[in-house]
Specification:
- It contains 15 helices and 15 strands.
- It is α/β, with parallel strands linked by helices.
- The strands form 3 sheets. Strands 2, 3, 4, 6, 7, 8, 13, 14 and 15 form a 9-stranded mixed β-sheet that branches. The protein has a 4-stranded antiparallel β-sheet with strand order 10-11-9-12, covered by helices on one side. A two-stranded antiparallel ribbon has the order 1-5.
- The protein is globular, with a radius of gyration of 24 Å.
- The two termini are about 45 Å apart.
Length: about 450
């Protein structure tokens, strides 16, 4: 017969951190040093301090289930802003938030917030999250890992019995992808207070000539003349913001490193160019030339859209439309590339005898630096979890780019297969996701108690 240990002795062991050794969980030993646990057990039968673990099976199932809300057949995922599948996916996320014990609210454009009230709710909270919209025929991990992983991090802390001082909040951002209205990070841009975007949305239409506001109302948002500026948040609304994301590059996988701590996010600039006549191909080559001329691997240029009118195989195009993305961690260097592309567009039009009818810089955002205190917290968490990590910049942009305008920001990257992203081959192993969730959970707990 097993010996009986008095309840108060068991609880004393928990508070001292010895429980970590009882449970044989190295993460628990780390968490035992973070305090914030319940001050009194209500009974011996209540296990306040189960070993801190990632429920891998549940998390992978949620990733797979969410991928079914798609306009493209599996394994591809297409989930466009305010579509039927987007609405269904949003409902799925809100249900998971409530199941995790979070209070749920949505703003005028559909940013979704799940809040775990802290013991001092008047303090600025700590937020984490990402997006779930997906460009046509992409994969099921981009953004999704940062939303479902954040919810699992909250569940981990709840299972452990952690009590936050600062409230913890999971955010699902609206339309990080520019698929429908050509505007990237729409929700987080507005949260960061972009008055220019709020004004532009009044005259923004999709390719089917549906206005942004009609589409938003279809999804249940922006109703009854709701002022879009209600989405704006003041600087300091959060104490910190963290985002967990797949790397979208091959470095971590190739080097066998499980965690990357992002030090900065590259600054994107988007351009729309239109010629009356055919000049798109030459401009695309000019973009490549100017990016390579920068001499930096951090300078990136993409010609993602070329449209010819009327688009018939036996008709000489009367109009060509080009959309270009240029980005760099160095804003000045990026702007030099943008100016060179503009000059090339004018020179090509002159040389070819066509009209440059439009050269519009849609956005030209500054880069964002991760906060040093958050970098340190993420590094400490990785070390305490015995996970190797490296520091790197993000050449892709994320909602964190705009959250950095509201609060100190940090990002965690995990490996993804061959660096593939925005393709059905996109894949992150559940063990790699679990490592990221552990680092996120531990970092959130530390920041919450700051």
């Amino acid at each position: 017969m097993a010996s009986v240990v008095p309840c108060f002795i068991v609880f004393s062991l928990i508070l001292s951190g010895v429980a970590a050794h009882i449970y044989g969980d190295p993460i628990a030993e780390t968490m035992a040093a973070v305090s914030g646990y319940p001050s009194e057990p209500t009974s011996c039968s209540e296990n306040h301090h189960q070993p801190l673990f990632v429920d891998r099976e549940s998390l992978q199932r949620q990733i797979d289930e969410l991928s079914q809300f798609s306009d493209a057949p599996s394994p591809a995922v297409t989930r466009v802003l305010y579509s039927e599948n987007d609405i269904s996916a949003r409902r799925y996320i809100k249900d998971l938030m409530r199941h995790s014990g979070l209070s749920v609210r949505e703003d005028a454009v559909g940013n979704i917030f799940g809040r775990w009230e802290g013991s001092e709710p008047e303090l600025a909270g700590v937020a984490t999250g990402s997006h779930i919209d997906a460009i046509p025929y992409s994969g099921k991990y981009d953004g999704v890992v940062g939303v479902l992983g954040a919810l699992e991090a909250i569940n981990m802390l709840r299972r452990w019995g952690f009590q936050p001082k600062r409230s913890l909040e999971v955010i699902m951002f609206t339309s990080e992808e520019p698929t429908r209205f050509g505007i990237s990070c729409l929700g987080s841009r507005l949260m960061a207070g972009s008055e220019a975007l709020a004004e532009a949305l009044k005259v923004t239409f999709d390719s089917q000539n549906m206005s942004f506001f009609d589409a938003a109302k279809f999804a249940g948002y922006a109703n009854d003349g709701q002022d879009i500026s209600t989405v704006f948040l003041k600087k300091g609304s959060y104490f910190a913001f963290l985002e967990l994301h797949i790397e979208q590059g091959p470095i971590l996988e190739e080097e066998g490193v499980p965690i990357a701590i992002v030090t900065a996010i590259a600054a994107p600039a988007s351009m729309k160019v239109e010629f009356k006549g055919l000049a798109a191909a030459e401009l695309a080559l000019a973009v490549e030339k100017h990016v390579l001329e920068s001499g930096s691997l951090d300078t990136v240029g993409t010609v993602g859209i070329i449209e010819l009118h009327p688009g018939a195989v036996n008709s000489i195009p009367s109009k060509s439309h080009v959309e270009i993305d240029a980005r760099d961690i160095d804003e000045k260097r990026r702007n030099i590339v943008v100016n060179k592309i503009r000059q090339s567009a004018m020179d090509i039009a002159t040389k070819r005898g066509v009209v440059l009818s439009e050269f519009n810089v849609v956005n030209q955002d500054p880069p964002a630096q991760s906060d040093e205190s958050i970098i340190k917290a993420m590094a400490n968490a990785s070390e305490q979890l015995n996970l190797n990590y490296k520091r790197m910049i993000s050449r892709a942009y994320h909602d964190s780019l705009f959250m950095a305008r509201i609060s100190p920001m940090g990002m965690i990257f995990i490996p993804c297969y061959k660096g593939y992203s925005h393709t059905p081959e996109e894949y992150a192993a559940i063990d790699d996701i679990a490592n990221g969730v552990k680092v996120l959970a531990l970092t959130l707990s530390k920041l919450s108690l700051s």
